[in-house]
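so i finally got all the pieces together for this one. its two components total, 635 residues if u count the protein bits. some of the lines might not be protein, just check the labels. i wanna see the whole assembly predicted at once instead of chain by chain like last time, that was a mess tbh
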Amino acid sequence: MHGGEVAVGERRFDVTGITRVEGEGSLRLAVRDGNVTEAHLAIFEAPRYFEQLVLGRTPDDVLDIVARICGICPVAYQMSAVHAFEDLLGVVIDPSVRALRRLLYCGEWIESHALHVYLLHAPDFAGLASAVELARVDRAAVERGLAIKRVGNRLVSLLGGRPIHPVSVRVGGFSRVPRAADLAQIRPELDDALRGALATMDWVAGFSVPDFERDPLLVSLRHATDYPMNEGRIVSNDGMDIEPGAWESAFQEQQVPWSHALQARDRDGRAYLLGPASRVTLAGEQLHPLALAALDRSGLATAIARNPYWGIAARAVEIVHAVAVAIEIIDGYGEPARPMEPWAPGPGIAAWATEAPRGLLFHRYRLDERGRIAEASIVPPTSQNQAAIEADLTAFAPMVLGLDHAAATHRFEQLIRSYDPCISCATHFLDLRVEDQS
Amino acid sequence: MTTLPRPVVRLVVCGNADRGDDGAALTAAATLLPSLTPVLASRIEVRRCPNLRTEDLLDLPDGVQAVIIDAVIGPPPGELVRVPLCALAARAAFTPRSSHQLPIDLAVGLAGVIRKRPVPGTFIGLSGHRFGFGTPLSRAVRAGLPAFRAAIEAELEAMAASTSVPELVPSVASESGGADSGAAGQAPIAPGRVSAP
């Protein structure tokens, strides 16, 4: 029986093809006496075995291999891995290289956030089915989003060697660094993108979102001087404050029978939320002044922490931040004396976390006596967010179960998209089923 | 300075060579392009798009058509699909494998709305079977490659022939270079003119 049909003792929604998420999965809700008793976000995409693919490889090999995990956030995988290796091996990088890595990450944040805000999520707020329909009613907005996204692509291409799955990151630095003149060519586009980013913030702040608030456990990196990307300590809104390589001391992964992706919870079994909303809430004081001013203007700082639908505003703030920071890095860039510091392989545990566009990304490697990978663990943000998404769906469902099938489905899809899940990272398409078990 | 005829077809090659049958389009292009006549090759711009993005179609000049080639899933492995781009939205029987950011019909449709005119061209796909990292092309895809190549060549010939007297452009200006076609693990694509996305 399909959604909206009601039978004695049973109500069931079968919704297929929730679109505009990265990857394929399904959601099943079990309802008893009007209450959701189970919410299972199932990721059935086949396991991808990256943690096995890297065994026996050198750290530099790993950087190229893990970039293949995702077409949207490959830089994040490279950054978590390279910082883990450099921390273990005592490699100190040139400050200009540090700035370039931040610039590369800015490119990825700009590209990923612009994609999600404009092409995946914004149509929901206009009651439209897709970015194509949004472009028909507001072509200027979509053009603005594509222009912002293009700048991100260009930054990743310039620094990473190509726009998808970059190949330039190396332990100790880069295989090649750009000349100041190369970066200066992007500068005018970044000025345009900054205007576009500020307009984006004003645009999304005007959206009407469902009235759904909760008080989640928020987790992100926080750094003394920078908004978190490559560096910082893992902190939470309930007082956690640990080293970036100490993720396993506070969190653990667990297998759940309905998903190919491992789920993560804290050591007390609590679900927690990563990503832009967590970063803005926990490290917002480090936002670029232009981003902070835009956030203040919107009046959404508190709402971003409590209402998941305002994740779109958190992403918009971070677009402003990433573009503004990119401009500053380019303006202050001095080519390093050499692109890469020398280093020697060695054994030990390499562990680090950085902030992918979707949240904290933790890598841990054990290197053998030859400095080759003997063991690997990669914990992507979407798998960490699964439990929090399920908890939010459970809390949200009673608000929409009385709606007709199409309206309820729209609300569920919109909520799921609020987290910008990258299901491919976690192990594509969502199939939603709600069953009444009473 | 030599002059070259302006390209009239953009061949958009999607997929990744390191993901099994996802490399079908790359393999077809890499083996087809060297065999094209110089005249036909000179009318083609080759764009390598591991994941098709709307931006890859926004700059399609007036008078230039697109042939998008990719692996697909849905039909029996080795089966060929050919769909006009204008009819992609109505597709139901197959899913292009390599589109990641937006489904291919949305990427093409969005480009059409932004351009204020539909993207002219054709999608040609070969149905794949296995897409694991490091796996070779499946037997079904290898068997389907000759038909895939023939369909692509026929489409390129038809599109090139349908365009009237070619305009001549300086060869220096037309060589954009800098493509990522030479990336590690990917089959080289030549000749034709390769453009960076």
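The radius of gyration of chain A is 21 Å.
Chain A touches chain B at residues 19, 22, 48-49, 53, 64, 68, 71-72, 115, 119, 130-132, 135-136, 139, 142-143, 146, 149-150, 153, 157, 161-165, 167, 424 (CB under 8 Å).
anyway lmk what u think
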